[in-house]
Amino acid sequence: MYFLQLIEATPWLLITAASLFGLLVGSFLNVVIHRLPLMLEQGWRAECAELSGTPAPSGERYNLVVPRSRCPHCGHPVSAVENIPVLSYLALRGRCAECKAAISPRYPIVEALAGAIAGYIAWRYGASAAAAGAMVFAWTMIALAFIDLDTFYLPDNLTLPLLWTGLMFNIGATFTDLTSAVIGAAAGYLVLWAVFWAYKLATGKEGMGYGDFKLLAAIGAWLGWKMLPLVILLSSFVGAVVGIALIVLARRGRNVPIPFGPYLALAGLIALFYGEQLNRQYLDLF
């Protein structure tokens, strides 16, 4: 009780605590982004070996906890001091402490992004269930966006729990009423499913993956069906702008695939924070 009163009296304390916790979560998200696709690939290989009757591939135990993080170039184990979010990267000047190989700037970017969003959510929602849910939603969006950038894959291990968690949060109408959440989950999946098949029947090619359907369904479960047109419009617009820029500036081929998940994730975050205002302004035009 005293802690809640202290937070209410000093909002900056909640924002600071949330930001610091977000930095730590961001460090864990880096592990998820890197390791989860490899874990899934390892599992698929084991399943294929079992179905074919061949010996399962051997290798060290590999999950989100073990083995310990290490430099991919020299194998140097990352110590606790070298793993402080953002600060360690700056102190090491973006290089391995042992072999001086460059460390991807993505690591501090993900950490800083997770921390900044957590602080903003704490400022916007205060100490509430909405704040906790928004952080779960935002952090999962970050992980999915970067995994899709790397692998063109949106794992069911993240999209499906995100969908069900959204429905659970909205039992109490945290972000929208439960009916809107259920319709949003169904409509989110079916809309992109219909687009997928229309494009495939027209061109004979697959324009997107099934993971995109599930991600939009999860966004619909969290935010309700009324936010889906905004999410689709924003993600399509940003995706088109980035795609054109890559073709014109980076001379990327038109047939080179572009992951759609990051744009859905970004649009979902915008809809979470500003969806009602944007929808209202859009409706005011008419």
Brief overview:
With about 290 residues, this protein is mainly alpha-helical.
Structural commentary:
The chain is mainly α. It has 10 helices and no strands. The protein is globular and about 60 Å long.
Topology:
Layout: H1 2-9, H2 11-52, H3 87-91, H4 106-125, H5 129-151, H6 156-169, H7 178-203, H8 210-223, H9 228-248, H10 261-284
Helix pairs in contact: 1-2, 2-4, 2-5, 4-5, 5-6, 5-10, 6-8, 7-8, 8-10, 9-10
| Helix content class | 55-70%
Find the count of extended strands (DSSP E, 2+ residues).
Answer: 0
Strand-residue proportion: under 5%
Mass-distribution shape: globular
Q: Describe the oligomeric state of these chains in a short phrase.
A: single chain
User: Main beta sheet, described?
Assistant: none
Average pLDDT, rounded to a whole number, is 89
Structural class, judged by helices and strands?
Answer: mainly alpha
N- to C-terminal distance:
48 Å
Number of helices: 10
Low-confidence stretches: none
CA-based gyration radius: 21 Å
Would you list the SSEs in sequence order as H and E? HHHHHHHHHH
Key features of this structure:
286 residues; 69% helix; 10 helices
